[in-house]
Amino acid sequence: MQYVVIIGAKSLIAQSTALYYAQAGFGIIACARDTQAIALWATDMAIRNSVDVVLESFDVEALESHATWWQNLSGRYDIAGVITVAGFMPSQAQAQEDWSLVQRAIVVNYMGLVSLLNHVANSFEARKEGFIVGVSSVAGNRGRKTNYLYGSAKAGFSAYLSGLRNRLSASGVHVLTVLPGFVYTPMTQGLALPKALTAHPDEVGAAIYRAQQKGCNILYVRSVWRIIMLIIAHIPETIFKRMSL
Amino acid sequence: MHIESWGRYPIVDAKVESVSTLEVLQEVMQEMPRPMIAYGNGRSYGDSALGAHIIDMRKMNKFLAFDAQEGTITCQSGVLLSEILDVAVPQGWFLRVTPGTKHITVGGAIASDVHGKNHHVEGCFSQSVVSMRIMHPDGRIDSTHAGEELFHATCGGMGLTGVIVDATLSLKKIASSTIEQTTIKSPNLRETFDAFEATAHMPYSVAWIDCLAKGEAMGRSLLMVGDFAKEGSLDYTPKASWQFPLTLPSWVLNGWSVRLFNMLYYAKAPRGTSHQSTSIDSFFYPLDSIGAWNRIYGRNGFTQYQFILPKATSYEGLSAILNAIAKSGKGSFLAVLKLYGKANENYLSFPIEGYSLALDFKIEPTLWALLDTLDALVAHYGGRIYLAKDVRVSQAHFEAGYEHIDTFRAYRHREKLENTFASLQSQRVGI
């Protein structure tokens, strides 16, 4: 059985994505800091789809553990690809006052994933096979005063994925950047989200599976976001700096 | 919010809390105003799961274990039977007992102690329950199995003993997902009975009966018996169901249209005995292929009247009841007759050894008097009414049929459950 590694398996987007791979017959290696919290979900998915669902404890913030962790994991399983869904979005206002939140956002959204994916990229490049899916954010496309501390970490991650795609294309390793836009999840609970721009987790999972299978490079889950971000990217800075977005 | 069951009558305004984990259920159970009642997939016909305070269990739907060697499956109570089939059939297992719809939850199946076409062989759903866990009003969880008081009170106990949270079911080994079916056409009730007795060795049997036929033809029927094929493929890809598109005006179904349907349906079947190979879905769940078929009965909803008579009085009793129905002209095209095996030890389970008839009626003002007449006949012949279908039976007629009702009441009283769990139905029939 070929396995797909999911980093940040507690999130709804991760679980929905995992389901599409399980339905296609892939085993799932579900990685989270607290695997106890996803044990019921994992058993249920394994039974419903007749596939292996393995729980692996993994801490994105424990950078020094990543090399051994990956070596160990890739030695035990035939891994088809790695999908990172882990993320941490602090409130902008609180983060401006509290460096620890900023630091955590940078580590979870950027440093930790880069640390892990460097090892993944090296093994996939060597065997000339595999895929990497990174769930980044449209918040990283252009910094806005309402969300730039989180956004800048995601911007770093998007740039990293872009570079990785460029490097690995020669060895046939596929890298997909996912920009979900707004999604109904516990992370966005309480925010007033415009319906037409907000996807359901299930929709995100389906879109990720399809885009990865087709070999897409950058996925906007709802295509209207591609247009919105195109417009936002083209607003001249002199105007943009005075706007409230 | 407004909530209803399969009969679409009554519609009640209730406080509904949806639960998805044990922890949430524990909180809800403690905070919910009393009395409360658990609600599954809303497929009981009447008011068994309706009340002012409802716990919606459908999202507690995780599989917890599946042993494909031994054929046991453990799941939370909100899992649907259809979901079990999706998992089990491709691996050569089937539900030991299944009713005529697969769109019900495991919790509902236990609470109503449902049965199917193989009651004379395998008994009720509870007889496939290896063990189950029940949450009490204070959040405690107990595990129980056959032989224990909690088990026999809960199976068939209509959700009035606690909330079933999960269960382990024993499955039946199958070699194929194809059913070999035999249809026997009988011209009257006597021959229908003879055909049931003659085919009692077959694991599955049920008869469609023309309840509007009078005189010589009274009780004419199509008896369908069958079993799983001995070999073949285990493929199971359920058909997409066709959704009934509208609520029919309630005049569409009347004595004449039903009589016409029954005549054609009976005439269509080949004379004597015929054989067919068919699928799990068309043999066990013919109506599931039409989504929302309850809308056919119109805006006012419908009810199903199901009773059972002891074998000794079955022929006489059924003749009397069929006569009363034919005379009223209130027919039903879903009239189902079945021979049952021995009763189990649960206090309120419906089946006893004898014949049961189930009939659908659309709700109309003149229906209640007919059903009261039928109640009196059922009581006279020593029979009982099935609570999972009922929406109107009186306390007196209900009590008359259930000899262990006092054991059940005593249990509820001792455990101080009377004001904790109740449905509109339990309040009406006084349990």
Report on the structure:
The complex is a heterodimer of chains A (245) and B (431). With 245 residues, chain A is an alpha/beta fold. Chain A has a single domain, classed as 3-Layer(aba) Sandwich (Rossmann fold), CATH 3.40.50.720. Chain A is built from nine helices and nine strands. Chain A has helices spanning 12-23, 39-49, 66-76, 92-97, 99-127, 148-168, 201-214, 224-234, 237-240; strands at residues 3-7, 27-32, 53-57, 79-84, 131-135, 174-179, 182-183, 198-199, 218-220. In chain A, the strands form two sheets. Chain A has a seven-stranded parallel beta sheet, sandwiched between helices. In chain A, strands 7-8 form a two-stranded parallel ribbon. In chain A, helix 5 (99-127) packs parallel to helix 6. The N and C termini of chain A lie far apart (47 Å). Chain B has 431 residues and is an alpha+beta fold. Chain B has three domains: 2-56; 63-174, Uridine Diphospho-n-acetylenolpyruvylglucosamine Reductase, domain 3, CATH 3.30.465.10; 178-401, Alpha-Beta Plaits, CATH 3.30.70.2520. Chain B contains 13 helices and 21 strands. In chain B, the strands form five sheets. Chain B has an eight-stranded antiparallel beta sheet with strand order 16-12-14-13-19-20-18-21. In chain B, strands 6, 7, 8, 9, 10 and 11 form a six-stranded antiparallel beta sheet that branches. A three-stranded parallel beta sheet of chain B has the order 3-5-4, covered by helices on one side. In chain B, helix 9 packs antiparallel against helix 10. In chain B, 50% of the residues are buried. The model of chain B has no long low-confidence stretch (mean pLDDT 94). Classes of the chains: A alpha/beta (245), B alpha+beta (431). Chains A and B meet through helix 2 of A and strand 6 and helix 2 of B.
